[in-house]
Design a protein that fits this description.
Elements: H1 7-11, H2 23-39, H3 64-82, E1 87-93, H4 95-98, E2 104-113, E3 116-125, E4 132-136
Helix pairs in contact: 2-3
Length: 139
Amino acid sequence: MSYKGSLFERLSSSSQEFKSLGEEEALYKSVANNLSRIFSTNAGNAEIAHDYGKPDLNNIELSQNESIETIEKKAEICIKKYEPRLHKAKVGIIREKLQHNEMNIQIEGFLKVHKHSKKVTFKANLLSSGEIKVIPDDY
C-alpha cells in the first residue's frame, strides 16, 4: 500500500505530489511539510491551537543561552503534540551559525517505516525561507 499523505494533505491538493514517490520518501516529505508548517507559524497565531508553532523569536526576553534552550524545549513539546509520527524528537539550534545571523535547527527523531523504527534528521533555517530539508541518517 502506498503512502497517500496525511489527512490535511489528502484534503488539500498537495496529495498529488506523493503519487510519484516511494512510501518511505513520501512519509519523509509529509513529515517535513508538517514541520515546515510548525516552524513557519509563531505560537499564538493559530486560531484553533495557541500552542501550535515555534516560540515568537521577537518576544523572547531572556539571555541568548536561555532563549536557545527555551526555543528548543518548546519546539520539542510542539512536535510531540502536532507531529506524532516523529517519535523521541530532539530539537537543537546550531549555535555557531547564530554568529552569522542564521538560526539553523536540527530535528532528530524516529519514524516507523515498514514496521521498523528508523532514525531521521530534518534541518531548517528559521531566519531565511524556513524550508525544512529531509536528511535521513543513512544518507
